[in-house]
Structure formats: C-alpha cells, structure tokens
C-alpha cells in the first residue's frame, strides 16, 4: 500500500484536526499535512498552488460547517480551478442530515462522505481504494 504524499485538512475544529493528524501519523497514512481552519483561507491558499501545479494535495478532508465560507461554498469555488492532478475530496462532517449526504453525491469531485469521528480503519480503506 502506497502512502499519500500530502493530505489537506480543512476544518475549524482544532480537536478534530489534532485527532485526524494523530490517527494519520499512527497509521502511516501520509508524508505531510496542509491545514486550514476556514474554507476561505483554504481556497485562497490552494488556488495559486494548484494553478502553478506545485505541491498539490492528494486528498482533501473537508468539513461542511465552518464560519465565513462553509464546505459547500469552498467546493463551489474549488471545482472552478483547473487542475492537472486529480485531488480526491472526502467530506468529513458531524452532519448526518440525509440532505447533506445526497448533496455530496451531486458533486463529481467527492469521493465519499464520512461522519466524524474518523477511524484508522476508514483511513486504511481510503488508502486501499486510492492505490
């Protein structure tokens, strides 16, 4: 199983970010992290990286409920950015609202919808699926 190079976490909950990073480190999931606490910050930092085809993340773990720019607004902006590399997006949310799950299915860029908290087993499934 090949390790992911860069995982991007977009989530305003510092406890979730800490826990997700710790689980990924223990599971030897990825080499490095990009962390953004707001959707707007993420889009403003990722856009120039993607356009320059620089160190682009392999996977994005995206929260839906964030201030200023939520996960849906981030997605709507993100899919407008032309990328030479496929970036897999996993929604990781505490929302179990069926409307959110259905809405996620309407985006081609969404690989899966995971309900918090995520486990090491779910991360291993992602690695097996993507590699």
Keywords:
five-stranded parallel β-sheet, alpha/beta, 131 residues, single chain, Sig_transdc_resp-reg_receiver, globular, Response regulator
Give a verbal description of the structure.
This is Response regulator. Pfam families: Response_reg. InterPro entries: CheY-like_superfamily (IPR011006), Sig_transdc_resp-reg_receiver (IPR001789), TCS_response_regulator (IPR052893). The mean pLDDT is 90. The chain has one domain: Response regulator (Rossmann fold), CATH 3.40.50.2300. Helix 2 runs parallel beside helix 3. The chain is globular, with a radius of gyration of 14 Å. Strand 1, helix 1 and strand 2 form a beta-alpha-beta unit. It has five helices and five strands, in the order E-H-E-H-E-H-E-H-E-H. It is an alpha/beta fold and 131 residues long. A five-stranded parallel β-sheet has the order 2-1-3-4-5, sandwiched between helices. 40% of the residues lie in helices and 23% in strands.
Architecture blueprint of SSEs:
Layout: E1 4-10, H1 14-26, E2 30-36, H2 39-51, E3 59-62, H3 71-78, E4 88-93, H4 98-105, E5 110-115, H5 120-130
Helix pairs in contact: 2-3
Outline the biggest β-sheet: 5 strands, parallel
Mean pLDDT: 90
The CATH superfamily label reads Response regulator
Tell me the fraction of residues in β-strands, as a range.
Answer: 15-25%
How many beta-strand runs?
Answer: 5
Radius of gyration: 14 Å
The CATH architecture comes to 3-Layer(aba) Sandwich
Give the helix proportion (percent range): 40-55%
Shape summary? globular
CATH class: Alpha Beta
Reported by name, the CATH topology is Rossmann fold
Q: What's the number of structural domains?
A: 1
End-to-end distance: 7 Å
Task: Find the structural class using helix and strand composition.
Answer: alpha/beta
Strand order of the largest sheet: 2-1-3-4-5
Poorly predicted segments: none
